[in-house]
Every structure is written in C-alpha cells, then in structure tokens.
Design a protein that fits this description.
By secondary structure, the protein is an alpha+beta fold. It has helices at 6-20, 25-37, 84-91, and strands spanning 2-3, 42-47, 54-60, 65-70, 75-81. A hairpin with a 4-residue loop joins strand 4 (65-70) and strand 5 (75-81). Helix 1 (6-20) packs across helix 2 (25-37). The chain is globular, with a radius of gyration of 12 Å. The N and C termini lie far apart (25 Å).
Length: 93
C-alpha cells in the first residue's frame, strides 16, 4: 500500500511529519505503514467530511497515531497524531 503520489506524501509529511516524530518523508511513510501493519490498531469505516467519501481508519491508541486509507485500501490518504475523542467523532459519522 502506498500514497497516491510522491507529491501527496510530501505534502502530508510537511503538514504532519513533526507531530508524528518523523524527521524525513521516509520516516513519515514508515510510521504510517507501522499503524497499518499493527494488528492491535482499531480499524473502522468512516465518512470523510471533506470529501464525503468512505474511508478506512486505523488508530493505535498506544501511540495516538491515525492512518486513513481509501475504502478499497488502494491508497494511504493521511497519517497524523490525534486523541481518542477525535476517533470517537469519526466513528459517529
């Protein structure tokens, strides 16, 4: 699984890299994949309010890291650190 483009990955790294503790695009990408590969991550379907598309969310409550995928699990959409309250809000959509 990958990002839709290198540009998309770089944009998200600029927006969220520091908050997930990544010092490079490669570390940011590895962090997103670590959540995807974590069998203990909470996985759920939600509706993206910005695009009105269904997404697969994966949240690691131990690290607070969240990764979103397209519904078909073809692309990584985003990756950032958040809190359980935000995840509860996504699940309620």
């Amino acid at each position: 699984m990958d990002w839709q483009s290198d540009h998309h990955l770089a944009d998200h790294f600029r927006d969220h890299g520091a908050e997930v503790g990544a010092r490079s695009v490669e570390e940011y990408n590895a962090s997103a994949h670590a959540v995807i590969e974590n069998d203990d991550a909470d996985t759920f379907l939600y509706r993206d309010i910005d695009t009105d598309l269904d997404r697969i969310g994966l949240y690691d409550p131990l690290t607070g890291l969240f990764t979103a995928l397209t519904e078909e699990q073809e692309w990584i959409v985003t990756h950032y650190r958040t809190d359980p309250e935000y995840i509860r809000g996504l699940k309620a959509r």
